[in-house]
Design a protein that fits this description.
Blueprint (H helix, E strand, L loop, with lengths): L2 E5 L21 H16 L4 H16 L3 E8 L2 E8 L10 E2 L3 H9 L1 E5 L30 E6 L4 E7 L7 H44 L1 H17 L5 H23 L8 E4 H10 L7 E4 L4 E4 L1 H19 L4 E7 L2 E6 L27 H11 L3 E6 L5 E6 L2
Helix pairs in contact: 1-2, 1-4, 2-4, 4-6, 5-6, 7-8, 8-9
Length: 399
Amino acid sequence: MPLRTSICLRVSFRMSPTEKQPNTGSTSTPSKVTQLHEIATDITAADSRAAIHQRAADGAVELFGADVARVAVVEGDQFVPAASSGSEDIDDSEPMPLSFGYAGQSYQTDTVLRVDDLADTRSAARSPIRDGGGKSEPQSCEDPRALLSIPLEGYGVLQVFASEPGAFAERDEDVAEMLATHVVTALDRMSAEAMIRRERDRLEEFASLLSHDLRNPLNVAQGRLELIQMTGEIDHVDAIDRALNRMERLIEDMLTLAREGDAVGETEPVALRAVANQAWTNVTTKSASLEVESSVQIDADRSRLIQVFENLYRNAIEHGGDGVTIRVGSLDDGFYIEDTGPGIPEDERDDVFESGYTTNQDGTGFGLAIVKRIVEAHGWKIKVTEGTDGGARFEVSGT
């Protein structure tokens, strides 16, 4: 449970419990409990992270009688605006460092932070207006005075602003903690459901492998073996060998997906040229050729990145022919691998990353699925387009 810190610069004394008067900017506690229950129910019913973020912001404005609330989520080393309530436009916001202002303080200390009057802190260059990712002042709260900054564990921070100083009472910190618990629980549930879906998809991949992909080469091998037994001719041995090799590749690819999935280990700066060349030595290249036109470095799990290159090389050689040329080069925010083969029709480009999809009778259909998972596990994106010479071009961005 988050700790609480109050910054009450406009209040120089604390009244005893019997003397304390109700805060005119807040409704009574029983009413807040009722509101909180309704808001929590609404958040729990959300069917996406975006919906959880928005309902949390909307609920905070309603719960605390505030003017503006905004949610910023953690992406890498930044707060990225995710939702806002009030008349503030989320498009007017920009990412901020995790150490920035009150948002950073409450997030890094896991502390609910209450500021009674922001006017007393503006000269300290801790712009509360921009806390959580705001680029400009909220339109409905042009001069915010009171702030509640609420950490959402590792997910981000929820900040609530009011135009009246002292708008939030000490008891609001308890309510804020309960609201945060409901938001975090909903986000945890969403993460768990996503993990279950991924595991279900992997089980379906295994079912497909066992019922179809492995059965076909197994039937070929068994059929050819029967012919050898019947005729004594050994010409069928080559076909058996190809079938067994295909089965071995299928099993290796499926084990890669099952054991490693979308996991990425520790990343480090790696030279793209070195990775490209090393992966080339691990592939049967026949008469294909490689041209590397990049000397950049990127942060990556080296072994998994090598897998990406190996699979893309194999894909190019399988579809582009023995004499295909493969080029590796740099993009503004990533790299590309293209070939001089026949390319991929535009209406098939969205399908090539699906598990089991292949147009090559000797292909497993899992190589590009593995590529996509490794790329996305790094936080990058991959797309396929037309290469310089009309072949396939795979572009990885966001590195």
